[in-house]
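Pilot study result, target chain (586 residues):
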Amino acid sequence: MYDRWSLDVFYTGIDDPKIEKNFEEWENLNADYRKKVLGVSSEDTVKAIEEILLLKEQILNVTNRLFVYFRLRKSANNSDKEGNSYRTRITELSSANAKEDVIFVKYIGEIRDLDDVIEKSELLKEYGFYLRNIRSEVEHSMDGDAEYAFSRLSSAAGLAWAEQYSYLMSNTKFEVLGEKRSFNQLQTLAKSSDRNERIAAYEAQLAHYPAITDALAFSVNNIKLHVLTEAELRGYESPLEMTLAQTHIKRETVDAMWTAVIESFPKFREYLKHKAKLLGHKNGLPWYDIYQPVGNAVSKPYTVEEAHKYLVEHFASFSPDMSEMMDKAFKEDWIDFYSRPGKSGGAFCYGLTWFGEARILTNFAGNFGAVNTLAHELGHAFHSMQTKLNRPLNRLNPLPVSETASTFNEIFLMNDAIANAVGDDKIALLDKQITDALMILPDMYIRYRTEDELINRRRKGFVYADEINKLMTDTQKEVYGDALDNDYLYPYIWCDKSHYYSAKRTYYNYPYAFGGLFGRGLYAKYLEEGDSFVPKYREMLRQTPMKTVENAALVMGIDLSDVNFWRKSISTVCESIDLFIKETSK
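Predicted structure:
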């Protein structure tokens, strides 16, 4: 307990005979699926769809078991050579039904009375959103052979370039403070409460990244070309339009959100300038001091045991089942806590809905921020515990709402801590809260704008590393103005963030801003409604895979196209900035 996660719920190890049995089961299910799809007819449409959906459920269950197991192994040890051959088999089997998937999609798309067909079956009613979404995607499908070929080639195109990124980042060593550190360890130092460690990490990034940025530029350029090609072949005007359609969110919602975020930039500049003054900087805040804590509370050390107790106790007041789930996560080894060479950086949560569990990777740094990160990831786990009540194909959340429960947890924990703090402790917590908001609002806007511009430039040709660096710093200057010291900006965010290197998740930045602000809006409702909020909140989380983002929000009575909702959410951050400035100006 309190060290590494246990994967025994999957398999007892790489030699577990159940692995080969599951691969065999997967191959047999694939064969049954292909046979069923190729033999589909219009004579008994309801029965045909039911049988295919049930097969897809079984395939998904065994696929998840194998894919997630080997993904988790690699995340905990990027040099997991034993798992490489299995991951290759998984990639091949995952695309084995591509041709039949195209046939099934086309079959659904050609059913003129689909709504009537759905009403004839309880199973189909449960999958109503899923089936109607397939129908709406048909107009953006490629011709059958092209769809199949594109799916098969993806593993040698965008996915392969993403693997190169992962390999480079896991094998690059950074010389910091006389020691060679992994990227993961460097990221921990970059957010250290020790200023000397942060400066050393910043200087190491500037010194070492140039050796690999050309290779990373090839990765990101070819991934964006992959995405541009797919969008064109599917008849979308842009990758952004394709992403929004695939994640069930309207452009009007995203635009309303960014409008409110842009309006908040002057307030964030005010915060950064004030913080720079507090730290003795005359030309704005250098990048490496954004995380410099003000006050003492953030520097207070936390052990994993203390984090366990703190989280379980604090969330019991919100929801006993949330608290119980958190307790179980710590006691039953759902969490891999500590940084080590070869382990992936950052933090994530995989919801193992078919087991009724989750697995969380973090790099616990022993401070309040690390506790807050655990709260964030356990929010993801809580979300997956709600969707486990759905049928297997109704458990995948669209990106925009995927960060909602996690961010709600952060806000709940931080606001509770601030409310119970005084003096220097309150100042430190306010500073942490504002810094976190800065990272998911103006900073995510920078990432969004940079990715959008990178994609637009990639239409015309290759975008070299120095161009991407300049694009990043130019956008930082545009957003932060003179609040940051322009001699100490950070051009390598595009290297740090794996989100840029996904052919399947383009623009994986706005969901963080969305989740942060939607979570704040939900928290405001919780304060208004009290205990009556919690059942509605659970139900909304359960329904997120089965509704558009806008319709899921309506469960809580929220209109996401209304810019005033977003303004109200951001106003809570602005209030924290005002309070921080007041408390530190005495």
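One observation from the pilot: The chain has 28 helices and five strands. A full batch analysis is planned for the follow-on phase.
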